[in-house]
Amino acid sequence: MEYFCLGCGAVYGIDELHYTCPKCGDVFLLRDNGFDDLKQTSGQTWREIFDARMCSKDSALRGIFRFYELMAPVVDPEDIVYLGEGQTPIIEASPMLQERMGGQRLAFKNDGQNPSASFKDRGMACAFSFLKSLIRSQDLDEVLAVCASTGDTSAAAALYAAYVGGRIKSAVILPQGKVTPQQLAQPLGSGAEVLEVPGVFDDCMKVVEYLADNYQVALLNSKNAWRILGQESYAFEVAQWYDWDLSGKCIFVPIGNAGNITAIMSGFLKLHELGAIESLPRVFGVQSHHADPVYRYYDQPAGSRKFEAVTVTPSVAQAAMIGNPVSFPRVKYFAEKYQAIAGDDAFNVVQVTEQDVVEAMLTANNHGHISCTQGGECLAGLAKAREAGLIKSEELAILDATAHMLKFIGFQEMYFENTFPPEYGITPKPELANRPSLVIEPAEKDRLSAEDYTANAAQAVVEKLGLKAR
Predict the structure, then answer these.
(1) How high is the pLDDT of residue 332?
(2) Phi, psi of 435 (to 5 degrees)
């Protein structure tokens, strides 16, 4: 394998960690020089190999590395780190939610069921496996793994670093006051050194980039191309879930730092090149209007597009609140490949409002799903795509719920209590608020006998719920 620069085409070996090209400063992809050899095996045989591995109890093949040959075939089995990541379920939307969406077929892929409760574990499993391999093969001294984060990356990095232990230590740099309490608790609980800086994610990213350029650290953000490889497993799992038939299917992904949408397109392209799938699913990237540089780029006429970073404003899709996504060059690279094979409508970017995002999250969860705000962003993106006539009802929309809803539960509370600061631009609808109601006062409990308290409390519940006697 080798690092391949998207800017100048320079190539570097994998005997050390690279993040950006020393010649031009652009980002890398990892390229498998033996990939053409994989084509000697038929697509049907690859499907059978991957399906058989789903039954394996070998920890090196149970998670994302059951697709070993497509991701990091230079990592020895003894170095593969497995914490239960991958194989997250795809749950078809409830009939009532599909009806509410105008009869649209849709499903959520619940990546919040990964070990640290987000999709980031896919990339960390691959990045730490390679890091572990590098440490062993080169007998490296202590390695500091560092990342910038809005929450999910730090949780995943700290968890995997704590598991591997030994010569790996971890530090995470977070934007002060911009991470939910639940997400902050995760790296602290895993023993990472947690450092805060004023600003937003983009400011944190500049700090870790400076560290990676000038000091001996292992950067674990999506600039790390090994992260991208691990996240390709999302695409492989979607294909496998639908028995390798992706015709009539659309994938909705929040863009954020653009690593995940990059990985997903790359993964589907690999499967297509091997003949494991016959058609590419359509891909929709989604961005909030509070952090939408990729949408703005693709909203310009083809041939005269110019990418410009944006200044973000507060967003409930906190993990996607990034104004200068590191992986944008990768998105552009794979989008062009994707559209060359499957047509211009195979890749789209839609923009949604903050009001759309938070209410879509509430709608999804109110219909039995486990959607974070980023999952809400995808549902809002689906509604926007329908409104624009970009998707047909008979197509199946698969929405990426990137993390567990409990990580972002504070935004639900802010909506129900109408406490959003003005900069969010969200006006809660009273009819959507759901708050607990007290059925009997504590003072009344204290003055009543136990028997009377039970009867009075039960009667209050009866009146509240309108129950009928037997």
Answers:
(1) 97
(2) -125, 150
pLDDT recorded at residue 183: 87
Give the Cα separation of 297 and 325 in Å (integer): 12
3 state SS of 320: helix
Q: Which two tokens stand for residue 92?
A: 């078809």
**Whole-number pLDDT of residue 7:** 95
pLDDT of 213 reads 86
Strand partners, 348: 284
Q: Which of 326, 421, 318, 331 is nearest to 361 (CA)?
A: 318
Q: Parallel, antiparallel, or unpaired for β 28-31 and 90-92?
A: unpaired
Q: Give the Cα separation of 297 and 123 in Å (integer).
A: 26
* Average pLDDT per 10 consecutive residues for the chain, totaling 470 residues: 96 92 94 96 98 93 95 93 96 96 96 96 96 91 88 92 92 89 92 92 90 89 93 98 98 95 98 98 97 97 95 89 93 98 97 97 95 96 98 96 94 96 95 92 90 93 94
Cβ–Cβ < 8 Å for 193, 172: yes
Domain boundaries, the chain: 121-223, 441-470
d(CA 199, CA 322): 12
pLDDT at 142: 86
The phi-psi region of residue 166 (left if phi > 0; otherwise alpha if psi is between -120 and 50; otherwise beta) is left
CATH, range 121-223: 3.40.50.1100
pLDDT of residue 21: 93
Per DSSP, 20 falls in state B
Tokens representing residue 243 in the block: 């028995």
State how far the Cα of 80 lies from the Cα of 83, in Å rounded to an integer. 10
Cα separation, 163 vs 161, whole angstroms:
5
Q: For 60-91, give one letter per residue: b (16+ CB within 10 A) or e.
A: bbbbbbbbbbbbbeebeeebbbbbebbbbeee
With 0-12 CB in 10 A as exposed, 13-18 as middle and 19+ as buried, what is 406? middle
In this prediction, residue 151 carries a pLDDT of: 83
d(CA 334, CA 262): 7
Rounded Cα distance, 119 and 113, in Å = 8
